[in-house]
Design a protein that fits this description.
This protein is an all-alpha fold. The chain is built from five helices and no strands.
């Protein structure tokens, strides 16, 4: 008897970032990792969910440079992170730990 093959697809967080509440929760979880590369990648995922071209335009960047900065290998400057956060309608909040 032949084995049945299971079809799978790649997981993409973008599919679940369809509300401001989901985006906020996703970013909060990313920040809790304290991993700068993961945080930048999470911003890239949110930018894809909101529309990369539109986010790049609002941030004053080219789409290509935004993809590169927020990729797994990217190392964006803090000013770029701030511009992208603003373009996405997000802001950092400070609390005591």
């Amino acid at each position: 008897m032949a084995k049945k093959k299971t079809k799978t697809s790649l997981y993409d967080s973008v599919e679940y970032l369809n509300s401001t509440k989901a985006i906020s929760a996703y970013m909060e979880e990313a920040l809790e990792t304290k991993d700068p590369a993961f945080i930048a990648k999470a911003l890239g995922t949110i930018a894809r969910a909101r529309g990369m071209s539109q986010t790049a335009k609002k941030a004053g960047l080219s789409r290509e440079s935004l993809y590169k900065a927020l990729s797994k290998e990217g190392n964006p400057e803090f000013s770029t992170i701030m511009r992208v956060m603003h373009a996405l309608g997000l802001q950092f909040s400070v609390t005591s730990i």
